[in-house]
Amino acid sequence: MYGHGVPELSALVDVVLNLAPVDPIQLAALTSVVRDGGIVVNTTVWMPAPSDEERGVRGVDLFVDSDAAQLARLVTLVDSGALHVDIARRVPLAELPALHAEAADGALSGKVVVFPSAAASLS
Asked: What are the C-alpha distances in Å from 109 to residues 84, 105, 112?
């Protein structure tokens, strides 16, 4: 075990996603299992995601506002053609690492829909 209840891993990870309220010390310790340049995403609203600037580990706070009326307005805008979402392409989940590399190189324009391999026939 790493400090403060963080499990020991066989390798550092690119992303840690925290979905539960934990002790602030435990949350801060999550940066220890993230590779240099990685990210810690936190969904708990009462404490910010930790970061490690020396190693380039970013902390991102992710919150969802489940506003049904707002979502319905967005659907109406998309359906009417007033709002267009540029979907550059659709790729199977197995191609996600290559897609991330492409995005990191700045070569990706528009949104990409990633689907499980079983859904390969969807277009």
From this structure: 14, 11, 9
Q: Which helix (DSSP H) or strand (DSSP E) does residue 21 occupy?
A: none
Q: Tell me the pLDDT tens digit for each residue of 79-90.
A: 999 998 888 889
Q: Note whether 38 and 32 are within 8 A (CB).
A: no
Name 18's bridge partners: 42
d(CA 19, CA 98): 26
Q: Work out whether the CA dihedral 35, 41, 46, 52 comes out positive or negative.
A: positive
Cβ-based burial of 31 (10 A; exposed 0-12, middle 13-18, buried ≥19)? buried
pTM of this structure? 0.55
Largest CA distance in the chain: 54
Spatial neighbors of 26 by CB under 8 A, at least 6 apart, are 4, 5, 6
pLDDT in tens, 25-73: 989 999 999 999 999 999 987 889 999 999 999 999 998 888 999 999 9
